[in-house]
Structures are given as structure tokens and as C-alpha cells.
Amino acid sequence: MRRRRLLLLLIALTLAVLVVDQATKAWVLVTLVEGEPVPVLGDLLSLRLLFNPGAALSIATGMTWVLTLVATGVVVVIVRASRRLGSTGWALALGLLLGGALGNLGDRVFRAPGFARGHVVDFIAYGDLFVGNVADIAIVVAAGLIMILAIRGIQIDGTRDSGPGAEGDGDTDPGPADGDGPRRADLGSGAGSLGAGSGASGARTPQEGRDDG
């Protein structure tokens, strides 16, 4: 039941990212003119339409079909990994990642200039650094969540990695019988021996009594 809820969360987030990404791209295609920026926050953030044949930061611009295959592989891996889903954090991360990957993959498959060679619609300009879209934002946030989950040692199925000394940090208390029991028994027998020794040294034989007399 829990896994089903997590899968529904992943699917809902994937669809939400995909719908918002494609809707904003459709809006900028009819609103913006390619190459003409519209300032939003001065020079820091603006809307500028461009068609990206490569990856982020215009990397591998001449290898669009390779990027299409890579994106397809990422989608397949996410879908397969979702069958082991047992963590809310991973459901959020994979939902964002899958939605972002499908958003840009759809551009590469269906947009001009052709199948598997389509250019991705980018329109959010971060100063002079790079131009991206909603799918890119989802992918970056997903990457951040995955890093946090990895640092915390949380696996996709919800289990945690056991680091050095993890056995001593558990909630299970071994109790006095496992830890202090033998030690207390030794102390008790030692005390008994000391008591017996004291009694033996304090006892006086009849001969010692006659000698004192």
C-alpha cells in the first residue's frame, strides 16, 4: 500500500512537471520573438527564446541524436528503479527527474528539424550564464535531492546505509544481563571472597585464645 502511494506521488509529480514545461514552451513560442530578451529582474533574469540543439550550456550541439538516446535511457532507468520505491524523498526526486527528462525528450523527438534531432525550447535566461526551461529546473532540483538522500544514506527502497559504528548507535539496549551481568557477578564473587577472607582473618582459633591468655 505504501509503495502504491509513493508510485502515485511519482506519477503525479512527473505529469505536473511535464504539463507545466510543455505549457510554458507553447506560451513562449507564441509570445516571444527568438533572440529578443524580455527583462524580468533586470540583467539577472529575463525571458529569451532560443532553440537548443545540444545539452545544457549548449554542450554537444552537434550530437542531438546521442542526447536523445541518453535521455531515453535515463527514462528507462527511472521507470525500472521506481519498482523498488520505498522512500518519499526518492519519489519526489525521481518524479522531478522523470518529468524533466520527458519534457526535453519530447522536444528532441517531436520538434524541428526532425525526429530524434529536435531542438529543445529554452527561454529562461540567467544573466549571461545560460538559458534553460522548466524541465531543466526540475532536473536540477532532483539532482540536489538525490545528493541529499545519498549523503544521508537513504536508499530507494527506504533503507539506510549502515556506516562505521552504526551498530552501537541503535535503539536496542542489550540490558545488564548482556553487558554488566558477568562483571557484576565477578564483583559479587570478589566481594564474597573478600568477606570470607575478612571473616577468616577475624576468626580466632581456641589455640590463639589460649596463647593470648
UniProtKB/TrEMBL annotation:
EC class (word): hydrolase
Active site: 122, 136
Record-given protein name: Lipoprotein signal peptidase
E.C. numbers: 3.4.23.36
Reactions accelerated catalytically: Release of signal peptides from bacterial membrane prolipoproteins. Hydrolyzes -Xaa-Yaa-Zaa-|-(S,diacylglyceryl)Cys-, in which Xaa is hydrophobic (preferably Leu), and Yaa (Ala or Ser) and Zaa (Gly or Ala) have small, neutral side chains
Record HAMAP family: LspA
Source organism per UniProt: Cellulomonas chengniuliangii
Function: This protein specifically catalyzes the removal of signal peptides from prolipoproteins.
Cross-referenced PROSITE patterns: SPASE_II (PS00855)
